[in-house]
Amino acid sequence: MYMNFQSLVVLDAFLLIEIIAIISSVLMILVAYFTSRKLLKDSRQTSLLPSSSYFKRNHSYSNSFSFKKKKKLFQKLTTYVEDQQVFLNSNICLKELSDALGTNSKYLSLAINSVSKKTFIDFINHYRIEHAKHQLINIYDLNYTIEAIAKGSGFKSMSAFYNAFKKNCGMTPSNYLKKHLKT
């Protein structure tokens, strides 16, 4: 019996050592987890702050692209858009236009924003709405529906067409049609 008791004491000691080892492993894992989490959080916060090289690069970027250059690029853009009628393409994007004009999309976007005081999509939608207005006035000659005119003017959906039309004209396409049929 004495032997049995000794074995239990030795067994309990080994069990106690294993429990201590497990607890210390769990504690080390928790410390590592929270330390890495804090480091990740700190690195995200510092990456959100602009570095001095970032500031210099972007500051000189906007200074080197004067309003005169923006206006020249914008005129080149309007000529291209009007001649090629790219606004009729419902998938037209800033990158595609900048490639066609031999510039980058950041410069083109700056030119549109600065000169027209519009976003790229508002700029394109302006041309689409002008095209749609011309089509609406001739709707009976062309035998089109308003939906066909919207699609033919480069809009992907009727809701986009109605929203853009109201934004540009202050009325719905139907009201525009009624107004111009009276005159």
TrEMBL record:
What top-level branch of life does the organism fall under? Bacteria
InterPro entries for this protein: Homeodomain-like_sf, HTH_AraC
Transmembrane is among the record's keywords: yes
Q: Which residues cross the membrane?
A: 13-34
**Keyword set for this entry?**
DNA-binding, Membrane, Transcription, Transcription regulation, Transmembrane, Transmembrane helix
Residues covered by the HTH araC/xylS-type domain: 75-179
| UniProt xrefs under PANTHER family | ARAC-FAMILY TRANSCRIPTIONAL REGULATOR (PTHR43280)
Q: What is this protein called?
A: HTH araC/xylS-type domain-containing protein
